[in-house]
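hey so i finally got around to running both of the ones u sent me last week. sorry it took forever, my laptop kept dying halfway thru and i had to restart like 3 times lol. anyway pasting them below in the order u listed, first the sequence line then the structure token line for each. didnt double check formatting much so if smth looks off just lmk and ill redo it

first one:
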Amino acid sequence: MSAGIVKPFPLFDSYPEFRQLNFNDLSKERPVILDLLRQADQSTDPTGSYLAVRDFLHSYDGNEGTFNSYRTHVERLLLWCILVAKQPILSMRRTDAEAFMEFCLKPPAHWIGPVVKSRFVRVGARKKAPTDVYVINDAWRPFNLTQPKVVRKLADEANVEAPAPTAYRMSSGSVAQVFAACQSFFQFCTDEDLADANPFRAVKQKSRFTQRNTREVRGRSLTTLQWDFVIETAELMADEDPEHERTLFILVTLFSLYLRISDLVGREGWEPTMGSFQKQGDDWWFHAIRKGNKKDKVSVRHDYLAYLKRYRATLSLSPLPYPGEQAPLLRTLNGRAGLSDRHVRALIQGVFDRAVDRMKADGQPEDEITNLRAASLHWLRHTSATFDAEFRDMKDLQADLGHESLSTTQDNYYDSLDGKRASSVRNLRVKGH
């Protein structure tokens, strides 16, 4: 490696830019990337390693969310091979996989930085031109250090700057994602005859890198009190301003149908419509293209239909969808079909923020308020599944959540019934039945 290159650098661009590459050769790569690959220690086979990762990412570029997640983790692996392990990525063995996972748990300081949106910076006039030059954003790092959301929200409420985070810590959920992404990469490589073995599969399945921490899911759920304030706040906002009828509908839909954000706003090649709701007999189902681009359907609880009717009334639509209806499920206030996931997240955050204010004004316990400050859109899915697990068959809940494995549903939501399980045995006697 050239003596001038000592810190990690981005190798893969944003999703739209990546899809413009020529996957038959290197003719469309940014010159700055090619320069870095040429300057790298050639014993690491930087170009061959880069192409293997690029081909893997190309196989997942049909879904932006999946692409972004895999890019983050496998790019780190590629950079670690080039800059730290000094070996070709396809030569990794089990001990290398374990060393990389250890590296992710405690990366060096110069690999960690603030969240940066752009990986490359355009050098040129205000207007884009084909001759523009792109350079690496000097602030980019493979690992990001941020303050927890609750700390940032408290600082915002106090109108002060949030304190700088002091230490990097990867959650067990993130560790599992790293492990899964790297396993998928090497499975791809073995399937394509690029590698002989999958070093991550050789890591013991009961190692600390693969253990699930179900408490994290339960820690990302609202309590009954918090949810009551959130839903009442959304209804209050809709009563005050008809524009928020859409916000109420989004909130209740995410909660009631256990949806991920992409299930609601759509993904490439699929956008939900009102016709995604279909009636079979006495029951309604929501049909969607879900995680992994799989067709699926979610059962609709009957009291949800009241919110669906309420929202459709504001759009001057019939009370319930008819077969094949093409009206968009979501639309902008000026009528354009579809909303971005960022827009939807902002709407839900607005409800959370106002619910926090109402809880403070109502004198609710500070720990309840603080937990709501930390909440995000994805908590709605966890909350409803946690609430419902006590009353639903495990396999039914698994199907509606869209989990591949029943154990995921069991570990995340049915372990939360330990209190009920413990109370059922508490008064049982050893003697004198």
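and the second one:
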Amino acid sequence: MAKGKVLKRIGVVLVVILAFLMIREVVSGGIDLTGTAIGDYINQKYKNEILEKVPEEFRTNYYFRWFGLGDCEYMTGDTMVTVVFVDDEISTWGDVEKATFKTNAEKVFSQLESDAKSYGAELTINTQYLTAKSTGNLSLKDYMPWVNSAISSAGLPSYNKMGVELEKKYDVDNAPVIFCANRDGRCFAKPAKVDRRSEFAIIYEDTNSLYHEFCHIFGADDFYYPESVKDLAATHLPESIMGSNGKKMDSFTAFLIGWTDTLDKNATTFLEKTNYITDEYMKTQYADETYTGYVENKLIGDTYYTGNLVDGILEGKGKKIRDGAIWEGTFKGGLLDGKGRFKSAEGNTYVGDFISGKCHGTGTYTWANGDSYTGSFVKGVREGKGTFKWANGIVYTGDFDDGKRTGKGSCKWPNGDTYTGDFVDGIRTGKGTYNWANGDTYTGEFTEGKLNGYGTLTYASGRVRSGKWSNGKLVG
């Protein structure tokens, strides 16, 4: 057959395929399947070019399965990260909590840029922070209703167009989205595998997993399960950010996310040792990880569970241990909810009421240094009436606001001195009475702990000095 006829037939076939995809685009409700098909072809071509640098026996290795998928192909270039603080029926974000998360997130993104530079890669991350509400359920097996509700509330493009539209809007190479729920849970990421339109991660409570999940979005995989892989990673990719509690970028993850095009000896050894892994094998491992039923001291990811699990999450009476911290009590959605007990890795403890994993209600928090607080909590913060005892013997009883001694209260020192009156941010400010152990008494106004304003000082001897005071001295 003549070369011209062959090319003509190929052209006809391509036209038919594109026409078919365009019809499906209309039927599907607007998903750009034509663009998807072309993009997938380009991605596969790109993927093959990269895999040519990999020894042939490793090219089908399980850890290359995310190559060329989605819009966030490599963690390089100009990147706009959208962070969405999501309030739902289980948890909400306070202003202070959002500010703390944002500060820590910026540190993570700065570290990512710095680490990329150390590998010779160019990465510039800009961020925007949004708030949203969600009415959907959130679990490892059923998260899209929660995500779609948050997307709608935040005013983002619909899920099947979100990544592409954000890239166009901000004229960037990548535009991943990070959804944040203010409670304990199993963080995870979803690279786009089919429609190539939207990659996102769901982060719980703090930024401890942000670097890890961000690498997931760009094609990296977990190196902490099953146990055989965890051990291999510990040996050949020590302290890997994708391993168990690792904090550093390893050479293989750097290759997967596009920071280097060279596989070093550690990476190739890891590939050799993991070449037995298949998708079916990992599905079996994942099914075990999301087990439903009663377990005792079961390790899932980096957490040990005892109690009844639903999709790998504690429900009802139980106990969990992670990184040296221990939670015991009644759980709802993996969070202490009701009466419970918490002990941190540092030795701090809390016994009392919880709501959505936070100290909420009445309880006692004791620090490892011997300080303690007993009283009212609101969403993890000392709020209302309570008593704070320092290890050195000082005792305060009274009002708390946003974790600080603010309002009416009394304080007693080990030497016998006492004060009853107004406090602002833990300091005597306002009106009150200070009694010295030697019998002297001052009643009047205070500013920042000092006698300031009008008041009367009565000495134990009976002598009285009254008038206006400034920085502890009578001036009028």
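quick thing i noticed on the 2nd:
The chain has ten helices and 22 strands.
anyway thats it, ttyl
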